[in-house]
Amino acid sequence: MRKSNLALSLAIAMTGSPVLAQVALKPDTPSILVWTPAQQSDGYRSIETVYKVNTIKRGDRVHPLPMAKRQIDVTFNHGSKTWTTDTFMKANNVSGVLILKDGKVLMERYGMGRKPRDRWTSFSVAKSVTSTLVGAAIQDGKIRSLEAPVTDYIPELKGSGYDGVTVRQLLMMSSGVAWNEDYTDPKSDVAQSTTMKVEPGVNPLVRYMSRLPRVHPPGTMFNYNTGETDLVGILVSNAVGKSLSDYASEKIWKPYGMGQDAIWMVDPAGRERGGCCMSMTLRDYGRVGQFILDGGKAKGVQVLPANWTAAATTTQITNGIPSGYGYFWWMRPNGSYEAVGIFGQSITTFRDDRIVIVTNAAWPRATDREISALRTAFLNAARAAAKAE
Length: 389
Prior knowledge:
Blueprint: H1 3-15, H2 37-43, E1 53-56, E2 75-78, E3 81-84, H3 85-91, E4 94-101, E5 104-110, E6 120-121, H4 125-139, H5 167-171, H6 189-192, H7 204-210, H8 226-240, H9 244-257, E7 262-265, E8 278-280, H10 282-293, E9 297-298, E10 301-302, H11 308-312, E11 330-331, E12 337-341, E13 345-350, E14 355-361, H12 369-388
Antiparallel strand pairs: 1-7, 2-3, 4-5, 4-14, 6-8, 7-8, 9-10, 11-12, 12-13, 13-14
């Protein structure tokens, strides 16, 4: 693989991988990875018109996000320029920025013609929601524990490289099973796993994953693997006996009080993509972040195990990228933990400051070192401004 291709693959793995297997409503739909700016602007906010999805239904109650007494703006220096929130958003095709402190809105801005009721696709931010549903299933007694074997919930994997792998090791991306996530190589696993035929009663992704060999002892080596995050989605669905969308509605959207229905892209077998592509409003992204920050409680009821959010959002395994990886959450050198998706999607939380910052965007490239550095500079400046209030 050429050096440039290697850099692209590593960079995308750092920020959240692209779509493995989606079902387009029209046969001539181009890959979401190569959409034009106009296709991004329209498609990211209306993904249900492009791909097959399931609905995550909200309930009757809405969790309030009251406006703080004073709103903030963010001004910061980066490179040779002084930036404002507006110039940052325009320069990077940012469709939404939300800053919460103590559950109150310090800033809510929209761009690219987006309105408050417009949803926006998550890409790999969905991984962090999927791991949260693992916690809910443990709290419900549907998954015995993090140390339970994966094969207890996906028996088709018995006798494969996943024999002896635990749920926890999947959440750490450390199964030890071989996986090549090179998006530029048509022979890579991330490409080949999308070509399996759909047969009645057989999940094509599970069949593909069951054929992969083990190359490391489980739990010893981090290897970014979107196939396994989709596998975790299947595991949860099997354990609870319902779709991920229905379970997300039951455990998060209804009890916590999301403002609108969300949608979740499905694979060719009709399963929600555990590793990708939910769509929700900017405020509901903020509510996801606040739900985790609040310890996984809804209306005073512990939806997740009491220690779940702390464990999920602290380093469980080193991954060669400061500062480590939790349960489908990234740890950052600035002290935050993040749910991240390509093209500029993120939920960034500074736990000790009780600050949640959401960005949605349509970057011109899936990942970009310069844009990422600018986003980090904005996040650090936004944190400082929020703390000052």
